[in-house]
User: What shape does this take?
Amino acid sequence: MTTADLTDLARDYLQTWADPDPARRRTAIDELWAPDGRLVISPIGLVVEGVDAIDAHTTRVHDENIDGRGMSFTYDQHAEAGDAALLRWSMRAPDGTAVGRGVDVVFRDEDGRVRTVYMFMGVD
Assistant: This one.
């Protein structure tokens, strides 16, 4: 994965959570994720499987946290190793204060589509 590829992945993955338009978020999910992709969320032990369920989950998070509370998500760091990318993020209040942090470890398939994401919330 080149630096440009990693930057594109980070941008596109963030769009699946943060884009204000639900249709664009869904299009981004369909383009980025493998159809049978898996999102595994720690510490809550939630496993979300398939693009329809991933879309429903990201929509709920967007509606509750971004639209509902005015939060935003930013990346603090990203790195890659082979087919894996590490995306360290912060959830920020409207005043810019970080109110949550986490790390997403993204694995892509041979076609470059996201097949599995392990999300670790509460990481400083």
About this structure: The two ends are 26 Å apart (CA to CA). The chain has one domain: 3-121. The first strand starts at residue 33 and ends at 42.
